[in-house]
Amino acid sequence: MTSTVTTGAEITLVDVAKRYHGQQAPAVEKVNLTIPAGEIVVFVGPSGCGKTTTLKMINRLIEPSEGSILINGEDVTTRKPTELRRTIGYVIQGGGPLPHLSVKDNIALVPKLLKWPKDRIVARVDELLDLVGLDPETYRDRYPRELSGGQQQRVGVARGLAADPPVILMDEPFGAVAPITRQRLQDELLSLQEELHKTIVIVTHDIDEAVKLGDRILVLGERARIARYDVPVNVLGSRASDYVSDFVGSGSKLKQLSLLRVGDVGTVEHPTAVIGEDAATVVDRIRQAGEKSVIILDERGRPRDWIWLRALDGLSTVPEPTIELTTTVDHRATLNDALDSMLVSSHGGAVVTERGRYTGVILFGDVTATLQENGQENSQENGESGS
Length: 387
Prior knowledge:
CBS-domain, six-stranded mixed β-sheet, four-stranded antiparallel β-sheet, 22% strand
């Protein structure tokens, strides 16, 4: 059952500025901002606008020159920087795992500094590995060099969550991985947030990522001046500023479609089988149901493959798949992501998961019908507003 308890903290920036010696203009100029507890807020803007500097001032990796930064009403400048950072999760591009430490030791870094009991640390490491979709038995003793880029990023997220911080800062967290991996990591973050309700601040240069992930989007201009701070649908529809319109781009109507999620369309049931089941029994059961394919699940209900029944002919049991299933989407994924997954599927749909476990199938026809219906509604609204 999904938690409804907010464990995040409100962040308030009051007249926050950053000035560097030898530079006449400030890098960040008088930022005033409130980030609600339990929300994901995404900072976007052009390179050099001050978004990363603003992010790093929250945990004092960069010291503010002026102003106040409050977390749940407490001024962060009243705390020792090292103590402050142990209470704020921090995830960077590539995950940033320390190469000489194992996965478990990377994740345990902050809990050890906080002097957690050893048994609590061990349990927390395994809990977090499972939470980010890495089997503890397989991955806890591996080293970063033995992991893919996406797996390293998952370890980075787990490490950021290790001490259960109320605030997590993420600097271009998914910028160094392949597009399909980026989509899955984004989906994973949304699913985690459904469960954890942290306050998460993300820096990205990608407006599409901001629209997908953000409860609110902060569009920054030169010297971190706030050009727009609003929910995604309002940012995409903004006509208040040429700067914001130019940054969002001419495809803002198409981007609005990315606000629709797989859960908005819904799923349909499809036959499943578990690895190790009697193959002949599975084939007979599914053919009697009038289907020609089956989704293979592991013992924990996670989808591992989607195969045609003929692949089971002559086999004694349902085999364990040897390749990764790529046509899966989380229930919080955008419809654009779902369509991308469907393009490589031979089944006319994609397998839908929630926290990694199978929930159903989303069909190509249902997605396109929803997009068409939404497009017609937008056209009618535009026509009414223009009349």
